[in-house]
Structure formats: structure tokens, C-alpha cells
Amino acid sequence: MGRHSHTAVDRPRSVPKLLGWTLLGALVPGVGLIAGGRRRIGAFVLTVTLGLVGLGVYVGLTRRQEVLAAAVVPSRLLITSVTIGALALLWIVVIVASHRSLRPATGGAGRRALGAAFVGVLCFAIAAPAAIAVQNVMAQRDLVQDVFVAQGESKSATRPKTVNIKDPWEDRPRLNLLLLGGDDAPSRVGVRTDTVIVASIDTRTGNTALISMPRQLTFMPFPKDSPLYRKYPNGFGKEGLSLEGRLEWMLTAMYENVPAAHPGILGPSDNEGADVLKQSVGEATGLKIDYYLQVNLTGFPELVNALGGITVNVNERVAMGGVSSAHIPPKEWIEPGPKQHLDGRHALWFARGRYNADDDQRQIRQRCTIKAMVDAADPATLVTKYKAIAKAGQHLLRTDIPQEILPALVTLALKVKSGTVSNINLDVSKLRMKYLHPDYEGMREAIAAALEAPTPPAKTTPKTPAKSSPKSTPANTPKPPTQNLVDACAYQPEGTQPS
């Protein structure tokens, strides 16, 4: 009798009070059980809840890098997904148990139905986000496993043989990545790497220098200790060819033609073309290329769309199609303008548009596209659209970066995000880059000097800059060896527009 009286006093009888305590018990697990008379279990649940919240706040404030590093370890991602599911299930159990302990021993069918419906809504509010979180975590796990292969499971003829997993950059002041872009579509015969960029990252500061290699370079060299040096002691090229005949001996053709002529010459490899380019581009630039990251440009629009598009300054009309040599004009253009938001299709043409544009213009646009994608990958976008981004990444990327160094690479990426991205300008005329035999020794010296120089700060660009005229800005005015991409990608239209 005494127990019944205690319950009658403590348990809320009215519908508003019942639903209110149920909601509070859902927001602060344990409170509803305590109010319903189950004080011991309620106190335990409340203590665990407060402990988990406190732990989450502590980790979020002091262990952010460790959390991000764990996001690229497949085993930890699996544990995370199971943990999210288990916590969501336990939360739902607590909500149901709280409502049952709060509900009066007697009550009409309507009151019971209303309470059950309210509990169902609360449970759905927990289950739906948890399911989305688990899907995103598993999408990340699939991306890591599909794109990044473990050091001992993949075949690479050129990447570092031994790696200090705890600190891969311990004896490496710079990390040099080779960024490749090509149309390796099922409907296309052969692969041409129209985009070849070296990203040299200062592992201490995250400051990054981009070096664009013109696709028409010939007689690309190989290091003397490479088996390919014996085949091409003077570089990949051939004398006495017509301009059209040189196409098969340019940098853009090496990815396909060298492995076709000498299959397996570098040893076991998952991507012979990339290994060939790592050796040759490394020798041409004087940099030891550590890893490559290859982008399938036919899948590029999918990734840009997953990011929600990119924002760029368009300084000149950019053709969407057209063939200059055949005098076939494009049907569409991207018109000049500041801060233009481009979807995937327009972003691809912005980076690749070739009609009446030289390689220098395309290289600048490609570097600005990379910068725009880095800027677009903000935390809010990654959280809300990550499943689509991860799916696009699976279709888009190939690399020889091993899984083992991904945690350290994530930490370095945070430095890159907050660091400075600059461009190393190569003097095309002085280095004879459009001639049959470019000055690769001069290229190495120019790159070494630029990397040793301090990174230039970004300038404040006026909101409405005046157009430059040929008189005020001579075409032959030399560019600085390094240029901050904030400046290079600013809105500053000048010169004549393609037509």
C-alpha cells in the first residue's frame, strides 16, 4: 500500500506532464527513470550520459587531430560504426523504459496511444541520424579500403620502401606528390595525362608549392639508376620528327607509351604509367616524388557536384568545347566574372578548356580549380554531403599512398588547409620549354631556388580592379618565381578575350 502511494505521488498523471517528462528523459537519459521511481538505474544512466558528454567535449577540444586521424583507419571506422549503432539502440531502450516508468498504471486507450506515438517520434529522431552517421562512416571505410591499399598489399615500383608510420615526415622536410589528370574512360582508347602537377608540401608548415608541367615537353629525362635510363639515355624523345609526330613523344603520352613499349621494366606495379611519370618528372624537377594521386577527369564533375560546386574568379572567356586547329568554335562559354559558382560540368571545362587558350592559361586555371576544391571542402560540407563525396572519390581516384600513413597525412592536410598555396612560375622562354630539347638543368635550378625562397604573402585585391592595358602591363613583364594562389586566382581580367 505504501509503495502504491509513493508511486501515485511521484508519477505524473496528466498527459502534458507525462509527455514533458518523457521528452526530458530523452534529452537527458536517466532523468526520466529517476522521475519514474527507478532511481538507482536512473542515476547510473545519468552518470554514464554525463561522462560520455564530458569525454566527447574533452576529445573534441583537445584531441581533434587524433579523431581525424582515426577517420582513415578502416578497423577504427568499423568500431565507430558499431559503437554509434549500439549507443543509439541503448538510447532508444532508455526512452522506452523511461516512458513506461512514468506512465500511470491505469489510463485510457487514447492516452496510451498518444504516449506510444510520442515515444515513436523520439525513437525515430534518434535512429535516423544514427543511421545516416553509420552510413557515412561505412562510406569512408569503403573509400579508404578501395583507394588506399596497405603498404604490403600493393605493388609500387617507386614509392618509399620503408615508412616510419608514427612520424613519416621525421627525416622528410618536404612531401612531394605527383597529381595526374587523364581521361581513362571505358569508351576512350588509351590514356593521356593532360594534367601533370607536382605539389611540394613543407611538412613543418603545410605551405604548398605547385609546379605545373607543360604537357608538350619532349625528351623528358630519367634518373641514371632507373632501368628506363638505359632505354632513353637522352630522355623520352626522338629526333627528326614532324610536329605531329612529336605528339607520341611528349609528356602527355608517356603514361601510355612507355609501359606499352617496355612492360614490367620497373618491376611489379599496380600502375606502370604513374611509376614512369614519377621517375621522369622527379628527374626533370630535381625532386624526389614520394607518391602520386591520379584523377579520372571523366569522373571529376561527380566530385565537384558532391562538394556542392566550387567558386572561382573567371578572368577570361573559357570555351566549353571547340577545336582550335580545325576552326570549330565552341557552342558554350564560361563568361568572365568574379566569384562564379560552377557545377561539376562547368568546373571541368574551366580547368580543361583549350579552345584559343595556351597551356599557361590552362595551368593557371587548373591550379585555381585545385585551390577552389580545397576551399569548398569545409567541415559543414563534409558532414552533410560526405556519403556522396566518398562515393565520387571511389570512382575518381587512384594512388600509391599506403593506408598506414593516412593518419599522419590527415594531420599534414590540416596544416595545408591553413597554410599558403603558391605557384612556382617557370620561365617558358628561358627554359626552352616549347623547344625539342628543354633546359631541364635550368628547370631544376629554378625550382630549387623557388622552394628555398620565403613564400610570398597574399596581397589584398581591390574590389573593383581596373583592367590592365598593354601599356601599363607589358606582356613580357617577368612573373616572380613564386606567386601566392590567392593573388593568381583573384579577379583581375586583362587583355583580349577569346572569340
TrEMBL record:
Biased composition (Low complexity): 460-475
Transmembrane segments: 18-36, 43-61, 67-92, 113-134
Keywords: Membrane, Transmembrane, Transmembrane helix
Region: Disordered, residue numbers: 452-499
InterPro entries xref list: LytR/CpsA/Psr_CW_biosynth (IPR050922), LytR_CpsA_psr (IPR004474)
Cell envelope-related transcriptional attenuator domain ranges (all copies): 192-375
Family: Belongs to the LytR/CpsA/Psr (LCP) family.
Protein name stated in the entry: LCP family protein required for cell wall assembly
